[in-house]
Hints:
heterodimer; A: alpha+beta; Ubiquitin-like (UB roll); Fumarate Reductase Iron-sulfur Protein, Chain B, domain 2; 2 domains; two-stranded antiparallel ribbon; B: mainly alpha; 3 helical TM bundles of succinate and fumarate reductases; elongated
Amino acid sequence: xxxxxxxxxxxxxxxxxxxxxxxxxxxxxxxxxxxxxxxxxxxxxxxxxxxxxxxxxxxxxxxxxxxxxxxxxxxxxxxxxxxxxxxxxxxxxxxxxxxxxxxxxxxxxxxxxxxxxxxxxxxxxxxxxxxxxxxxxxxxxxxxxxxxxxxxxxxxxxxxxxxxxxxxxxxxxxxxxxxxxxxxxxxxxxxxxxxxxxxxxxxxxxxxxxxxxxxxxxxxxxxxxxxxxxxxxxxxxx
Amino acid sequence: xxxxxxxxxxxxxxxxxxxxxxxxxxxxxxxxxxxxxxxxxxxxxxxxxxxxxxxxxxxxxxxxxxxxxxxxxxxxxxxxxxxxxxxxxxxxxxxxxxxxxxxxxxxxxxxxxxxxxxxxxxxxxxx
Lengths: 238, 127
């Protein structure tokens, strides 16, 4: 069986705050199998042409979300995105760049900590598994598969233009809002973190590498805001 | 397949596809601007054409009535009105939690709006 080959021209954004005043692009040529992923191209460049290139990856199967970059302006997971003959690879926006393709996730971690994404219980845990409706369990499990890769936040036009934390954070809040044991008022938290600024454009749904829909989570929050939620809000601490 | 069991994920080709949400968002903004611009130009043109105080200005602009009856202007206006209305209704529906496919809703809105725009062109052609 013959496997097709591809010649890739990759322009990679290079930036080292220690010695560069502004980001610049360096062009590299890579030849390999046509079904290479963007990460394969980056790794090949690192191993053969630019040993000082800074980039991140861990799992290589789309489960950890650390390799997220922008390819030709679109935020993707480098390990999942198929390479193209011409690629302009940049770090995720709007996060501060530590070096080359590595962004500083301190602010992301800070926001996640601020959201207190663990169920706030009113009763003590019974020390045994609690029953849960299978359909709800499946839904929670699916929402929990968010990688926090920040691909949606990077692609979101509302994050760029308005005071909005981003779709990933809204999805995490919705996940908690649906959790049967959580008593915190997640709707208020979502509003505080800019949920009403969302354009409802569904770009986050299209780019999500985990096939989740943060936009739908936001729509559900908005519905809850307009018509009231399924669960009474009384007694829920803010 | 169960929603929770989606491993392994398929290869993505996101960077080759248009971001439908961005297209819809910009079309919504542009069509809104077209409508506002048309209304402004229309008000000014009608004032010049019908208010006696502007008779001198009207005499200097013999081309003005023709601008008002261009088929492409009306086609663009009708396309803009229909698209802007439909997308606005889609956004309102979304606020109530209704989920609509972003691809299907965009292209069906564009197709419907284009049909209405095309109808204007055909009307001018006497068909």
